Amino acid sequence: MPRYEFKEGSSNKFWEITLEGNSFTAKWGRIGTDGQEKTQEFDSEEAAQKEYDKLVREKEKKGYALVEGDGEDDDEDGGKSVTGASNPELEAAILKDPDDADAYLVYGDWLQAQGDPRGELIALQHAQGKATGAEASTAKRQVNAHIKKHQALLLGGLTKAWSDEELSVEWHLGFIREARIAKGDYDSELDVPETLKKLLAHPSARFLRSLTVGMVDMDGENSYDDVTEVIAKGGARPTLQSLFLGDFEYPDETEISWSHINDVSALYEVLPNLRSLRLRGGSTELGKVDLPELREFIVESGGLPLSAVKSIASAKWPKLEKLEIWFGSDNYGAEGGVEDIQPILDGKGLPSLKKLGLCNSEFTDALANALPKAKVLPQLEQLDLSKGTLSDTGAQVLADNAAAFKHLKHMDFRENTLTGAGTKLVSKLCPSVAAGSQREYDEEYRYSAVGE
Q1: pLDDT digits (tens, 9 = 90+) for 313-339
Q2: pTM for the full model?
Q3: Reported CATH class of domain 170-434
Q4: CATH 2.40.50.1000 for the 3-82 domain, yes or no
């Protein structure tokens, strides 16, 4: 608990305050006594933080001075250090080159001069990055203790979600580099979109590089509409390079088709430097894809609509190296076939593609017929046909055209419908082949591995 003391003339008083979520507790009285205590609650964590900062400033103006504690668990952020310092010019230098450690160190020096604990955190993490052996372990403990001690500033209104392990973060040179937000269980009261809004607005996330969102709603339909809206309305985030919507376990947390990605096209404008986009769920709509820096695109669906298939097939991906599509079952809304992904097979707009996944499909045998002549095949290093309906008939076609695949480094046929004979046919197509966990073949009822 931050403790302030005022000693002047006959006055010998203390004042302590602890902020937690949407409330804070203040304690005051003469030094040497237990004093009085009062807790105030507010409508929101932001309102509590605002009043907390106001009271600290008022006490400092009256001459109260922060007294340093001696324990790692003390939260000693007060005054200017609670709201933090900011230097737009030095931040711009980091934004220009987020990988330049020197830009962080210069900012760290300035922050330390302002009494902002982020400055010391930058220095501590820089030292940790250079340490080895026992020194590295010591440096890690120092970093963790510093973060815990100054969590009021470093996390603010995010502290409860972090303490409850529903927000996990990775710190890099004083700032949050990676973050994951998700409801922890069915009893969770976490408001995921609101927590995400706080995260994106928080100074500690100025240079966020990776964002993952898990379960948003465990009671009803799990939808990412509000999450997408928060990101889109939050303004451009040039440092964000990786986004994963739908990081949940299926079917344990929810079935994949009970979770809805919906329209994500509003994200493209605000995430101009996105390099990895992964979407897991149903009802996916992509619109006109415009992500010129993207290197990896993965969409995992139990039923991908035709509009999304066409969006992927018509997109221009100048730097894309990995494309993985889960088509799903027509029982859960999957649409389209080989003819709809012909532009992908022709390699149109995919000059850098090295890894192609055409997965969870109910037309895998048709793919087996089309792939040997696909124009994109010679440039590929890996081909993934897992979770589909590849039969021994399709496997025979692939084996008959083995020369077309021998340049590949890896092929994946897991969770298809091959017999032992079919598995043997595909096992020697290239140096590395995964063909385990085959499902039972039924000519009358063939389905993709992931539907519901």
Answers
A1: 999 999 999 999 999 999 999 999 999
A2: 0.82
A3: alpha beta
A4: no
